[in-house]
Design goal:
Prepilin-type N-terminal cleavage/methylation domain-containing protein; competence; 5 strands; rod-shaped; alpha+beta; transmembrane helix; membrane; N_methyl_site
């Protein structure tokens, strides 16, 4: 009998192939988790911008929305860059209070946060105040 103290070429190739399959699976998982993490970061950032804009709208008695707006049908609309400048914020305020509303001076404001023309986040809030005609 021969004294076999090593690996044959077939065994080495099989080990390399098996190791390659395992490493490709791990790298694929890491790549996908990094991509999802970046998407979640973007979404959270957009939600925080929408929330801070919502607070600003409520505290300003509709003045933030009314300043430099255009009247588009029943809505005042306004678009501006956020402080981050990656995101565009679009505010839409119904010029007529909602019918059946117990407090007629409340106006529904739709806040949309967009990046590269696509909506990333949106929220609604109310602002209280009289609207003058622009």
């Amino acid at each position: 009998m021969h004294n076999e103290k090593g690996l044959t070429l077939v065994e080495v190739i099989a080990a390399i192939i098996l190791l390659s399959i395992i490493l490709i699976s791990i790298f694929s998982f890491l790549l996908n988790s990094t991509r999802l993490n970046n998407m979640n970061d973007e979404s959270i950032q957009a939600m925080n911008i929408a929330r801070s804009t919502s607070v600003e709208v409520r505290e300003s008695s509709c003045k933030v929305v009314k300043a430099n707006t255009s009247l588009n049908g029943e809505y005042y609309t306004k678009e501006f860059l956020s402080g981050n400048s990656e995101y565009t914020i679009k505010l839409s305020l119904n010029k007529n209070p909602e019918s059946g509303n117990l407090q007629p001076e409340l106006h529904l404001v739709h806040i949309q946060v967009m990046k590269e023309g696509a909506e990333v986040s949106d929220t609604y809030t109310y602002c209280k105040g009289e609207l003058e005609n622009n």
